[in-house]
Amino acid sequence: MKRKIILLITLLLLSYGYSNAQYGPVVSFTYDDGSDTWPALFNVFQEYGFPAVVYINALNWWVNGAGYNAVNTLLEMKAAGWEVSNHTYNHDLGVTETNVSQMKSWLDSHEFPNSGFASPNNDWSHSRVNIVKKYSSYYSRATELPGMSQPFDLYHIERINLTNRDNITTIRTMLDSAVANNKWIIFIAHEFGGTYRTPDDTWYQSDSLLRLVLNAVVERGIPVKTVREVINDFFPPDCVIECSRDSMQFPVLPYFEQPENQAEPPVFNTSVWNEYWHNTTWTDPHLIGSPVVYYNTSNDSLQVMKFHRYVLNGQYDVTATILLKNPGGTYRLYYSFDSTNTAQYNVVVNKNSDVSLGPVTVTNGQFALYTQNADVVSGGAGDVGWAFIKLFAKPLLVNIKVFLEGPYNGSGTMTTTLNTQGLIPKYQPFKKAPWNYLGTEARATFPANVVDWVLIELRSDSTTIVSKRAGLLLSDGSVVDVDGSGPVKFKGISNGNYYVVVRHRNHLAIMTSSAIALSSSSPLYDFTIAQSQAYGTDPLVALPGGGFGMIAGDGNNSTIITASDVTPIITNLNNFAYLDADVNMSAIVTAADVTKIISNLNKSTNVP
C-alpha cells in the first residue's frame, strides 16, 4: 500500500520563531597544519573557556613526529570542545580523492569523527568540491573577506587571517560590524608565537594579539563556536535537502556550470528547469559552493519539481535557501508539501535569503516539497533558485519556575542586583568544575529582569544525564532560553519523560520529584508551590510570605553547606564582584552571606 505522509501545515510569518533568521553574531578561531606551539595556544583558550578548530595533516611534522605526543594533545582539545578536522593527509598533494579520503580515515580511526574540511594552499574548484563533499560536512577556504552574512555557503565557507601583521583596531571594527549585521567571522592562523605588529608576518599569531582579540570578543559578548557547531546550527545533520543532488530531486536534472574565469551566461532557457553552478558572485551574500535549481517567473507550465529525503518522524520547522539570479526584483514562490496542490502556499522573496516555509509533522519517515512556478511581485521576470531545504526539529522545551533563596525579596520576586550592577557574565559561568559544561551560550546584554544564569540538566532516569543547557533566571522565577524567546530549548532531544535538574553557582541543586513529560509544548512545572515538587526529603526552603526556593549557601560548590562555605566569604569580604561567595547575590560579599550559610548549615542536595 502506498505510504502517505501526514503533514500538518500552518502558514507563518517569515520571522518564524524557531528559524535562524536572527542568528549571529558569532566568531570562530581556526588553525591549520599542526605545530608544537599549539599546546600553548590551547592553554590560552582554556583560560577564556572558548573552543577553537584545528585542521590537520596526518603527515605534518608535529602530528606525525616522534616525541610530540600530538594525538593525545588533540584528544585533550577535543575533550575541551575543540573541533579536529581534515586538511588532507599530505599537505603537498592537494585536494585529491585519495588525499582527502585517507585523512578522513585517519581522523575516524583516531576518534575524530564528523570532520569538516579546510583546503590546503587555499585550493578550491567545482571538481574539488565534488570530492570533499563525499567525506566532509563542509568546505572552507581563506578569502580575506571580513565575515559572512546569511545565507552561509556550505561548500565555500570563508576565513580571514588573524596574524601578527593585523591591527587590533581593524579587528575591533570588524567585530563591531559582525554585531551590527549578524555576521560570522572565522579567523585563521597557523602557528602560535611571534611578535604582534610584524608587518609581513602572515603565519604566526602572537599571545598578545590573540588576547587582544579574545578580550574584544568578550567585551562585545559574541559567542565563540567551532565551525562544525555553526554549520550544524544552520544545516542540521540528516535533515538537509541539497536541491541539486540527484537523489533528492525529481525529475533528475543535468547541471551546467560557469567555466572558471568566464562571465555568467546571459540568459537561461526559460522553457525548462536550470540546474546551474556559479563560479562568481552576482549579489551579496553569494552562493557558489554547489549548483542551484532555477525556474523562470515567465513560465507557469514547467514540470512539477519534487525535492525529497528520508528523515526521522517528528515535528519540524522548514526553511529554504532561495537565490535570485536577477537582483532588484521581488518574487512570490509557490510550493506545497502535498503533490495534489503545488501552489497551496507561497513565500515572497526579494534577496538571497533563508526563508521560513512553516511547520511540518513527518509520520512515515519521508518529507517532500513540491514547486512549479513563481510570480513577479515587482521588477521584471527573473530566475529564482532553490539551493537548500532544511528541516529543523522542533526543540524540546523545558518550561519551569524556580526561586533562589539568596536574592528572594519576599514578594514573589527576586532581586536583580547583579544585573543592574553589570556583573552578570556575558558567557555562561558553568565551564569550570564541578559543572564542566562546555556550552557556548552567551549574551551581549541582559534584559532588566534577569537575575542570573542557571544550568538545566535532563536525565532519562534519576542518574543518567541526557543533555545540559544554560538558561537565564528571571525575577519572577521563570527560566528562559539565552535568546529570551521562551522556555529553555533542547535541540535533538526526543519528546518523552525526563527528570529535570536545576543548578546554580551557590544554591543547592534540585530535581523534579519524578520524570515529567517534555515536548515542544511542555506545560509549566512550578518548583515554587510545594516541597513535593522536588526530589528527596526537604529539598527546598520555605520562603517568607509563602512559596519554596532553592537553598542558598553552597558557595564552594561541594553539594553540602558546611563551615567551609564561610572561608570564601572571609577571603572575599567586601569585594564587589560576581562571586560564588556572594550567596545572597547583593553584588558585595558581607557578613549577611555568613548569616545565610548558618541558617542552612549541614543541608545538602538531594540530587543523586
* Low-pLDDT residue intervals, each spanning 5 or more residues: 1-21
Count of the separate structural domains: 3
Strand proportion, as a percent range, falls in 25-35%
Largest sheet: 7 strands, mixed
Our Rg estimate from Cα atoms comes to 26 Å
How many E strands?
32
Number of helices: 11
Helix content: 10-25%
User: Span between N and C termini?
Assistant: 50 Å
Overall residue-averaged pLDDT value? 92
Which class of secondary structure composition applies to the elements? alpha/beta
Q: In one word, what is the shape?
A: globular
Description:
There is one protein chain. By secondary structure, the chain is α/β, with parallel strands linked by helices. The protein folds into 3 domains: 26-222, TIM Barrel (Alpha-Beta Barrel), CATH 3.20.20.370; 240-393, Jelly Rolls, CATH 2.60.120; 396-599, no CATH class. Helix 6 runs parallel beside helix 7. The protein is globular. It starts with 25 loop residues before the first strand and ends in a 9-residue tail after the last helix. Residues 1-21 have low confidence and may be disordered.
